[in-house]
Amino acid sequence: MPHSPASAPSRLLLTVSGGQLIAAAPGERPPRRGRRGPRRLAPYARLFATPGTVAFTVPNLVARLPSGMFGVATVMMLTAHHGSYALAGAVVAAGLVLATVAGPLIARLVDRHGQARVIVPAALLTATGHLGLLACVALGAPVWSYFCCQLLTAAQPNTGGLSRARWAHLHRGPAAGAVAARHTANAFEQAMDELCFMCGPVVAALLCTALFPEAGTLTAAVLMLGGTLAFAAQRRTEPPPARQAVPGPPPLRAPGMAALLGTFLCVGSLFGAMEVVTIAFAEERGQQALAGAVLAAQAAGSAAAGLLFGLLRPRGTVRGRFTRCVAAMAVLMSMLPLAARAESLLLLAPVLLIAGMATAPAMVTGMTLIQQVTPAGRLNEGMTLAVAALLGGIATGSAGGGALVEAHGAVTAYAFPMAAACLAAAVTAATRPRRPTTAR
User: Which Pfam families does the record associate with it (predicted)?
Assistant: First the structure.
């Protein structure tokens, strides 16, 4: 850059753009190069600039994808050998019920002894259960042995909660930057949850139909075990274990926790009913093959909204944002019965896409609240309680939605997920924590 004459103003405004140093006279703004896209993604760039974050995120996603595969893979495997959806549903439901009990207990061990020491044997037990079920089905073992194998699958670690705990540890504290980083991290994790539950069933169905009925379960077990082992090997980002019991009430009795779990239970009921009713809606119209794509629209809307929500700067209190997000979810879910009356999957899919956009922000903010009310040394247990509430809600919603379909048809049954969303909003609005929650 040439030097200015001595009579020229001595101060220049400097900026770097595209690797070049650019000068502007006083009073002028430096020229701006149009690269707004990367700037909008800056919160995620800053998030993954922390050393070790990519190294634990990638294997965690590999370990998490099977969570969306096991259910569909088990159903397709059992129906191929027995032709009974009742048996397949009972086996899957048994695993869900057991997971709601075992999950928090395993998470408590994780908080006490560290992630790697607990999740490696837990993943081995889980893989043994799924591969044992595969062997029992293929070899024609008695049906009761299927349920015995499901006892072991309940040991599956809550991989999403493990990843969230690492983000919370890396960005702990009340500083504004840490609070914003946790918000972005929770949004990213929620979007990845939606992505796994959107792609998992598709991958499982493709494997079971293109290869052999046991291929989905076999692949999911290998991915879960391999991803968990690789995740556990990333020790430098692992939160330190508490080593001893954390003083104070357990997470279940923490102020505000019961109300949050009540909301998560209602949201889980929404998810469970939505899946069953949408499949029935498609089957009633002879378009069952499109049910997966329609449900994927809801997950896609939620994933996209989650990623966009992570780019926003959090404003106001977390409790206020949570109340507004759940209320928005109730409003959007209220469109479902109206769309169903048109009796068209082409109309229902975009409505589900739009309705799903309120799901991720509500879940992101809810998980942030869970992290705030849970004692610092028992974070995995607190987040796993939320997942257990969701699983319990999914089981309840699946049963309730299915019963309503049998009694009144799928169009009327869409009132169930709408009612669950409205109940979640009512619970959130009517309850308040006993003491103000503070960011950590």
Answer: MFS_1
